[in-house]
Amino acid sequence: MPEATNTAALAVPTARRKLKSWQIVLVVAVVCGACVMFFPFLWTFITSVSPGAGLTATPKLIPDNPSLGAYELLFSKTKFPRVIANSLGLAVATTLLQLLTSSLAAYVFSRMPFPGRGAVFALYLATMMIPMQVLMVPLFVQMRDLGLVDSYLGVLLPGVASAFGVFLLRQAMNTVPRELDEAARLDGAGHLRIFGQIVLPLVGPSLATLTVFSFMSSWNAFLWPLVILRSEELKTLPLALAGMQGQYTTQWDVMMAGSVISILPMLAIYLFAQKYVIQGVANTGIK
Fold first, then answer.
1. Could you tell me which of 198, 216, 203, 183 has the C-alpha nearest to residue 106?
2. What is the per-residue pLDDT for 85?
3. Domain CATH number, residue 179
4. On the CB side of 2, how many CA atoms lie within 13 Å of its CA?
5. pTM
6. What distance in Å separates the CA atoms of residue 176 and residue 103, rounded to the nearest whole number?
């Protein structure tokens, strides 16, 4: 018995050492992966503050003569401030409209039973499988008939509703106990009050998740704005960056400065809402 006890006592530290070794390997792998993912962003910023930088230049993590001249050129000799305002306004409007329409539709699918609800919801989700390229021509014809070509509203309307947003919020609302609804009805609350004062506050993380996804999708949109917009003053940031490739072909510091500016809003929003995004995705069961 004493020998068995000693053997068991020796086995515990060994298991702990193995566990710590695997933890160290895992941490090292995660750190290496993070460095690989972060390096392109770091290189973009370094290039933007390196005057005369080119793709064939010798890589230098510390520029010889760092300068913000590329940023100054963007804001003084181009319409970049207007371009940023265009993208920001469209992204904010799209995000707010998707939050409104998706939350209302999700509440209906989650809390208001009606004949064929499951079939309608499945059909609505099926639209997620249709690529935007297939809808491009019909959407353009529709916008042309409505007189919305080359307008902010023409860019905005196709993104007002989001099937993914409805699915995400409906899954989150299904986790809210129905007993809260029943207690509110006993107090005389209707659907609007239950929706606004009970359900929405409890699905806040999912709303934050949808906010990030909606903003990023609108901010990075390229194909539809390219089709629908004609005027230079209405161009969004992705269109302006694509146009700069011909104007500043050899001035990679200017190109990278524009890329850095395009990344900053998304990075700020994600860092602010990161914990809510993780919690929202975890609560809805999406992997």
1. 203
2. 92
3. 1.10.3720.10
4. 0
5. 0.79
6. 14
